[in-house]
Amino acid sequence: MRFVFFKTPKPKKFHIVARYHDPDLERLRKRKREMGYEEELSYEDELRLKMKKRWRGKAEEPSGNFQDFGMSRNISYLIYFFIIIGGIYVIFFTDIIDKLLMLFGIGKIK
Fold it and tell me: Residue 32: its pLDDT value, please?
């Protein structure tokens, strides 16, 4: 289970026209032409093709990101651990809780 304290914004949608030669895309367009479908690829088909290429690339060649090794998850667990330990220390080894309870009239007056 992962706790997130800040809301991350949703990614904005945009469409970029490729300005380079893509052999996979050309093969797909040629195959569609031969089968009698429209020549132009839909946005979904182009997106699927790009995703396939990215996933293939990641499986073949690992990048040096922290997420590949799970470092960001470990760091977040370490931060949560220190927050919990700090809370336990404040509750059991300081008199802050007693003072707060006395402020609201619940605690004992010494």
Answer: 78
